[in-house]
Every structure is written in C-alpha cells, then in structure tokens.
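Contributing: when you submit paired examples, paste them exactly as shown. First protein:
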Amino acid sequence: MKVVFSERCLEYYEPWHPEGPDRVREVHSFLKGEGYVFIEATPASYEDLSRVHTVEYIERIRKGNFWDSDSPPYENIYEYARLSAGGAILAAKVNGFSLMRPPGHHAGRSGRALGGSSLGFCYFNNIAIAVRSLGKKTLILDIDGHHGNGTQDIFLGDERVGYISLHRSPHYPGTGLRSEANCLNFPLPRTAGDKVYLKTLEKALSQIDVEDLEVVAVSAGFDAHEKDPLASLGLSSQCYREIGRKIGSLGLPTFATLEGGYNPRDLRRNVYEFLRGLEEKL
C-alpha cells in the first residue's frame, strides 16, 4: 500500500498541543524503515473543498478569521489543511494511506458540527472531501476513538454514502449516541478492549450490503489504543492488525486517512499493524 505524505505537514505546531508533528514524523520514519513507498501529497483545489464545505467557512479558514480552542489559526493553516485534504484525495485515487495532518473528521459543512464545542484539531474534513471527489458508492468506516460528528453532519441522509463509527462514550464530542438513517453509531465504554471492539466491528459490518458498495474509506484514528492519553478504548497494537484484516476481507478498493492517535511511539506501531492487516486481505 502506498503512503501519501509531505514534509510540509510537519511545519506548524504549538508546543502545548497534542496534535503535533512528532506523531506523524515517528510514523513516517517507521514506515520508511519497513520499506513503504511514499508519494507526495498535492493540495486540494477550492472546488474540491467546496463540494463539502460552505464557501463562507472555507473563506474563514483561508483568511484566518476564526478562533477555536482546539484548532488554532496557525499561520498558513489554510495551506496546510488544503494539503492534508489533497493527500486524502490522492490516497483515494491510489487505494493508499494518507499520513498527513491536520486530521478532519470533526469538521462539518460549516465548521463545528452536531453540537460540537470545537473543531477538535480539524479544519477541513479530509475523508469527506476525498469521498466526494471519487463520486462512488462508499462506506466510510471511522475507527477513531472519538465520534466523527463532522463526517456525519456532511453525509447524513446521503444515499450514496454509508457511515459507521465505533467510538468511546461518554466522551468528546458527545455525539454518536444512536444510529440515524445511513449513519450507524456504536458507542463503547472506555474499558471495551480488543474482544468487545472486534465483536462490535463484526456486528457493524454485518449490517452493510457489500454488493451495493464500490469503495471503503477509513477514518483511521488510533487514539482508541490502550496507551493513548485522549480517547483510549483499551485496544492493543495487535488489535489494529485484526481491524485491518476485517476491513480488507470486505474485498473492496480501500483507502485510509490519518485521524487521531496522540502517543507517537505507539502510533507508529499501530499504523503499521493496521496497514499490514489491510494488505493481508486486499
């Protein structure tokens, strides 16, 4: 599986912020040592962004005319966010993995979504932009420890896109407590662990008609890991290989984009196990 990356995504940071460049830098170094092939990310176009977000919201990000407690208006954040969205588009084209930041699944059509109190480290919804760019019948599977309230906000009621999220509850952003239309939500306790998580994933995937799909898009967050400081569900690194295998077993073209995961040293192993699991079955 090819990995989409650009060193430019390492350029912005705040020392106090958990969504920092070290998390991506560690994964890049590890995957490079394992022989993965990297391709350079290119920015999403304005048209790409506007298929998902309102022009008013895009302009606020472009001009830095916003304030958010979790998602600061870093200098040039519009360009970094546009590059991350473009990385997701490229990953969709090559059935690869986008190793880019900032993440995206909390960003709704107009920014904050479904009652969220912040943008949750996100600016543009990378996975949604990539899915809309493909224009195919797609299952979005969100394995981040947080509910992707922005992704649900964008695709709720869309007959061409199904959304499944397994996430910790009660927890930020406080959404995803029940399934609604094409959005299937599976809230889990923080003590879930591998066995409960994998059983729930099997249940979720059993509710999908694979014959009616063309693509699987994975919001690949790794903050459900047992050592993650923000959204742990008690998962082991080996569990991510099993998650990858189950997704790959669907037998559909698959791509993934990085979401959460805030313990850099564990994140590199978790990403690797997930990719290996996918590759074993794809």
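Second protein:
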Amino acid sequence: MKGWSLPWPKANKRRWLGAVAWLCVLLVGIVAIYAFFVLRHDPTLTNLDHRLQGGSLQHPLGTDQLGRDVLTRLLLGGQQTIGYSLLALTVSLVIGIPFGLISGFRRGLVDRIFMRIADGFLAFPDTIVAIVLSGLLGAGIGNLVLAIVIVKWVSYARLVRSTVLAESQKDYVLIARTNGLSPGKIMRKHLFPHIAGHVLVLASLDLGKVILLISAFSYIGLGAQPPTPEWGAMLNDARPYFQSKPEFMIYPGLAIVVTVLLTNMLGDYLRDRFDVKKEVQS
C-alpha cells in the first residue's frame, strides 16, 4: 500500500483541499479574535466553589478541577500550542534555509562540514533527540521550542541543499554566473524562488508533527508548566478525572486531532498546488 489518497479526480481534490486550507486559516482567525475580544474568564483564576461543573451559559464547556473555565483554557491553549509550533518552525526555517543555500551553492569544504553536522543530527530519531535536549535544558515551553528548533532545522537545510544542487546545474544559473552576478544575487533572485514551494510544503506537513510533539511533551511535564493553558497540559490535568468527567480529556484531545488533520490537508493542498513530489516528506 503506497499511501492514502482521496478517491476523486485531481482537480476536484485540489479544490476540496483548497477549501479546507482556507477553512483552517479562517478557524485560526476566529479563535484568535474570539479569545482576545470575547472571552471574559481568567484562564488561571481558580474557584473551588465551582469546580467540575457541567456546561452552562456562563461556562459553555463547564469548569475543571480548579473551577477554571474550560472553553477559555481550550481556546487560549490552542494559541499556546499552535503559536509555539509556528514559532519553532519559523526559527527552524530562518536557520535551515541559509545553511542549505550556502552549502548547496558553495559546495567544497563548506558543504562537507554541513553534511557531517547533519549526519550527526540524523543519526538518532527526532523524538529521542528532543527528549534528551529537553531533559538537559530543563522543563519549560521555551526550552522545548529550542529543542525542536535544534532537531528540525537540519531537515530544511538538507531539502534546500538538495534542491540547490539540482538547480545549480541548469542553464539559467550558469548564464547568471557568466554575466557576473554575485553569489548572493544568484541565490536570492534565482535559487530561492525554486526552493520556496518545497520548503512551504514541508513546513505545512511538519506543523502537525510539531503540534503533536509540543502537546506530548507538555503532557509528560516537559513543556508548558501550570497554570499555563496548553492542550497537552490540559490532557494531563484531566487524566485523574477521566472516569467521572471524560469530556475534559475529550475536548483538548479532539482539538489536537482536528488541528493536525487540517494541517495535513493544508500540506496536501500546497503539495498539489506547487506540484511538489511526495518525497518532500522524507
């Protein structure tokens, strides 16, 4: 089995995935606006007199074990989870793209040094390296983001390097060199537009993985620390009450599943839109 695919023609698939991509952006915007301008509950304010309440007009999704509004913490937790995931990917791109461009274009000693560094990072699975780095750096969302950046930048640098190596042999780059363009201008004006689509597709597919990583690490106590609302931390907080109040684990769990599913669909749409081969995921 080569992989899962939608059972309809490519044109219809692209339109459907495009609609899902715009829906994903719209949902993120609605959540951000609602969280900032509508919510009136303090996500960290405890009220033991109202703990473990069911849904009501004042608390649509009820209150948790400390009397905090679940809806408020769910929405603000989404800002934490998605926001830090985007931050980790952005920093990884800022580091990885220049490394890949310079390594693929300059080659020689610079490329050999980069490849040895990349081989060292890729010798172990991403999750294992992130766990070790988080343990060494200490618990906290900032240290977790740093650990993810250290793990992720290599994949973007390698992707950019391989694309630059292929593009550097084409006529338009050779002509640019013959005309005396500086290496910086060649990389910026000629090579970067060719790698942008590949990088964007890989980043969109990676976003779901990073969301899962941050949620998982927060669940085991290496990510967001109490009382910060975050989906993984909310799962851990609700675990002792799963039998009596299972919905308190279902809400953040469902939010994670839906968000990751939407990001994967967004990645599929961008891959079809930029006509990028599926090998970009590896």
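If you have annotations for the second protein, write them as plain sentences, like these:
The CA atoms of residues 271 and 277 lie 7 Å apart.
The domain at 62-281 is CATH 1.10.3720.10 (MetI-like fold).
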